[in-house]
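We modelled each protein-ligand pair independently. The example shown here corresponds to the MRU entry; the chain sequence is given first, followed by the ligand as SMILES.
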Amino acid sequence: MGTEQIQSVSFDGKTLHILDQTKLPALKQFLQITTIEHCWQAIKELKVRGAPAIGIAAAYGLFLGVRDVCSSATFDEFDHVFQEKSDYLASSRPTAVNLFWALKRMRARLMAEKGHSIEDLKAKLLQEAHAIKAEDEEVCRSIGLHGLSLLHDGMTILTHCNAGGIATAKYGTALAPVYLAKEHGWNVKVFADETRPLLQGSRLTAWELQEAGIDVTLITDSMAAFVMAKGWVQAVIVGCDRVAANGDVANKIGTYGLALLAKAHQIPFYVAAPMSTIDMETASGAHIPIEERDAREIINGFGVPTAPADVKVFNPAFDVTPNELITAIITEKGIVRQPYQESLIELFKEKSENSMPQYGNSEEGNQHVTA
Ligand SMILES: CSC[C@@H](O)[C@@H](O)C(=O)COP(=O)(O)O
């Protein structure tokens, strides 16, 4: 499986290597990042993108930001720089909660290691960044196994944006069940939405699935209703940037429309998300900050003007899908359904050993029973 070999984010001890996703599919080019400023820019400009990959990159970026602090500094001095650098990285993108989750996790590690020398603290922080990445791979595989319980051989799914291997440490979230279906010998086909304006579906998902030898058909976003009406789609699976405590989900702009279409065609609409994407501190989707991006992405996205230069533009990068449109949320700890307000709380209470991923041909799969 071609994509399994590609590490979109890796660190060799000195340099952070980031697959420049803005260059795909034309070029498989890696950025060599040695400063926190370069890392911030890579996140801001979507060179590294996808919620889990942003979190991993930020963890390494934070290490880059503190690694030159003088070894004779006090803990408080080190912590001051750490906090400043962390706030700086937090300003790169607002919606994917994994960014903030990873920065918080790095801080928790720093606090847990208080008392060690400055050089030891740096080593522990690098260790934590490595752990965040390694765990993400496990988590995505587990999401894939749980998601597989909702699929069957011969099925066609539709996905939006890119929630694949390059958006995570490996496997992806929405695409993890597809990769595992292939490992299992199933023939699962995918419709990839092009995903305007930045074309993550065509540039990244279509490329990644094709590399992996998975049957993928590219459509523009506006064709989703047509293929659903034809009966060609048996499930929609998308990733997400933040799940609110009530189960509302922020994901790439266009996801909400797809959820409405899926409902109209009685097609299950699944969201795949690691626990690190669930934000129990945000009550509902109305409170999720939605990133707005530069107008040029819409009026000059293809390298040539596609609109009058001075036209008014609204360019939100994400939308919010209300929880009532979501059939189930697939996490590494299991699958949850309505009422999300309760089932998500239960999920955080449970130990992961209680929910061994399974797969089969059953629609009911490995579900969490919620009161
Ligand atoms: C596993 S990636 C999940 C989401 O981050 C993904 O679906 C998405 O919307 C990414 O948006 P992007 O703007 O490309 O970072």
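The chain is about 35% helix and 15% strand.
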